[in-house]
TrEMBL record, chain A:
Keywords: CF(0), Hydrogen ion transport, Ion transport, Membrane, Mitochondrion, Mitochondrion inner membrane, Transport. It comes from the Eukaryota. The keyword Mitochondrion applies. Subunit b, of the mitochondrial membrane ATP synthase complex (F(1)F(0) ATP synthase or Complex V) that produces ATP from ADP in the presence of a proton gradient across the membrane which is generated by electron transport complexes of the respiratory chain. ATP synthase complex consist of a soluble F(1) head domain - the catalytic core - and a membrane F(1) domain - the membrane proton channel. These two domains are linked by a central stalk rotating inside the F(1) region and a stationary peripheral stalk. Pfam families: Mt_ATP-synt_B. This is ATP synthase subunit b. Gene3D superfamilies: 1.20.5.2210. F-type ATPases have 2 components, CF(1) - the catalytic core - and CF(0) - the membrane proton channel. CF(1) and CF(0) have multiple subunits. SUPFAM superfamilies: ATP synthase B chain-like. It is found in: Mitochondrion; Mitochondrion inner membrane. GO terms for cellular component: mitochondrial inner membrane; proton-transporting ATP synthase complex. Residues 28-43 have a biased composition (Polar residues).
TrEMBL record, chain B:
This is Mitochondrial ATP synthase F chain. InterPro entries: F1F0-ATPsyn_F_prd. Pfam families: WRW. It comes from Phaedon cochleariae (Mustard beetle). The chain crosses the membrane at residues 74-93.
């Protein structure tokens, strides 16, 4: 830095430009970016693509202006450029021959062209850059999408498999329910059958008893009837008539 | 190190992919931070072979490439660098002839 400052003071333009040029490019972030990434092993050692370097007036590196700021403030670089050019022109170290005026007119045309068409050209080229990048990324994106879709399908399949196990469980429960219902139905059938038989027995016994009773009564009545003789009948009639007479008298 | 080889200090296992803008040797103090009385020894430590000069120019070229030409949305700056650089170069080359066009005898 000190040497380049001396060369600035001595006013030797080509050397100044050369040293500053080396400085300006050496302050580029390429090396610093790489040195940052060297701490991590593996693929992170790969250099990162940079953002374009900042320039003023279309081409002068920002670093050349920054170089002046510590000592001279923000107007320093412009003051330096102006004073140096007046020195070079007044001493005719820089000769204003015919090519100078050619260059001046060319520069005016260039500035007009760049200001007028630059933004449009930049927009068009940026669009192309984006399209190019998109076309490069397209395959990767498609693959990512496909893989994501496959993953979601797989998850869905696993989910439906879980549903299948639930379904099997439900079916088992259903079968158990059917078995239970069948068991209860048979139980009630057996109960009904047994009850029917018992009722039958009860009814049968009742009927038998009734018949036996009826037969016994019939038998007793017939025996009593057969034991009554005609004398007894006659006596009985007489008795009845006497009773009636007694009743009539009373 | 033969013609077209990588620098001898470059080791892919340590440094990763080759970066043509990077110096792989041991780093000395940057020229901007060298004190005036150390300049002699600093220059004496430099490798002054033709291949080292070529390497330095190549690294400078690739630093410029990485900074101004290779970025995704590079502007018009690199083209203007070439234009103004060649203007300066040809001015210096033709200075002997141009200096005859001086208009004033005394300055």
């Amino acid at each position: 830095m000190m040497l380049s400052r001396i060369s600035f003071l001595s006013g030797q333009a080509p050397r100044t430009l050369a040293t500053s040029c080396i400085r300006a490019t050496s302050t580029s972030s390429a090396n610093s970016q790489v040195s940052q990434t060297t701490e991590n092993p593996g693929s992170s050692l790969r250099p990162v693509r940079q953002e374009p370097g900042k320039v003023r007036m279309g081409f002068i590196p920002e670093e050349w202006f920054q170089f002046f700021y510590k000592k001279t403030g923000v107007t320093g670089p412009y003051t330096f450029a102006f004073t140096l050019s007046t020195y070079l022109v007044s001493k005719e170290i820089y000769v204003l021959e015919h090519e100078y005026y050619t260059g001046l007119s060319l520069m005016i045309m260039w500035i007009y062209g760049i200001k007028k068409f630059g933004p449009k050209v930049a927009a068009a080229l940026d669009k192309e850059v984006d399209a190019y990048e998109a076309s490069w990324n397209e395959g990767r994106k498609e693959q990512t999408n496909t893989l994501g879709e496959q993953i979601s399908n797989e998850e869905k399949a696993q989910w439906s498999m879980e549903g299948q196990t639930m379904l099997v469980q439900a079916k088992r429960e259903n079968v158990a329910l059917q078995l239970e219902a069948n068991y209860r139905e048979r139980l009630i059938t057996a109960y009904g059958e047994v009850k029917k038989r018992l009722d039958y027995q009860v009814e049968k016994q009742n009927i038998e008893r009734r018949i036996a009773q009826k037969n016994l009564v019939d038998w007793v009545v017939s025996r009593v009837r057969s034991s009554i003789t005609p004398d007894q009948e006659k006596q009985n009639i007489n008795k009845c008539i006497s009773d009636l007479a007694l009743l009539a008298k009373a | 190190m033969g013609f077209g080889d990588y620098p001898a200090e470059y080791n892919p296992k340590v440094h990763g992919p080759y970066d043509p803008a990077r110096y792989y040797g041991a780093a000395d103090a940057p020229f901007g931070q060298v004190k005036l009385n150390e300049i002699g020894s600093w220059i004496a430590r430099r490798n002054k072979t033709p291949s080292a000069f070529t390497g330095a120019l190549s690294r400078a070229f690739w630093r410029w490439q990485h900074k101004y030409v290779q970025p995704k949305r590079a502007g018009i700056a690199p083209f203007l660098h070439v234009v103004f650089g060649s203007m300066a170069l040809f001015y210096i080359m033709n200075y002997g002839k141009i200096s005859h066009h001086r208009n004033y005898k005394y300055h």
